[in-house]
Amino acid sequence: MQRGQxxxxxxxQLKIHERNYPTHDLELAxxxxxxxxxxxxxxxxxxxxxxxxxxxxxxxxQKELNMRQRRWLDxxxxxDFGLSYHPGKANVVADALSRKSLHMSxxxxxxxxxxxxxxxxxxxxxxxxxxxxxxxxxxxxxxxxNVRECQKTDKKLMEKLALVVExxx
Length: 169
Fold this sequence. Notes:
By secondary structure, this protein is α+β, with helices and mostly antiparallel strands. The protein has seven helices and four strands, in the order H-H-E-H-E-H-H-E-E-H-H. One of its GO terms (molecular function) is RNA-directed DNA polymerase activity.
């Protein structure tokens, strides 16, 4: 945060083996990930980390840690930061963002399958810089095509068109 405003966000999907981590380790992994992403800004300066997971506050006081937690604590010792508890109920914006990303990731899972179905339906998928337009289904009526074909074989119409073309020259 700068002057009370958030300046950046970071997120990533869990790796397959991380899905089995307990909640405490996932929260710690998020802190480690954020520090790795912004280490060039944070190294050598004092900063504050806010978490809605209360047990992270007591992480440095715990006596028994697993190997993963020990490794992450060694990494965290290189930084000068404070770890503060911020209740999830009070952090409405972050909660909404995390819920939105969950919905977006589930949509992205079906993307390829939907594109294949669009091709089968001759449904166009158009990507623009700001959005993706779906459902641009082009409906055609054979009536106009039939009229055009019949006009080509109509002798009287062709004679009149020839006169119009000659007058236009």
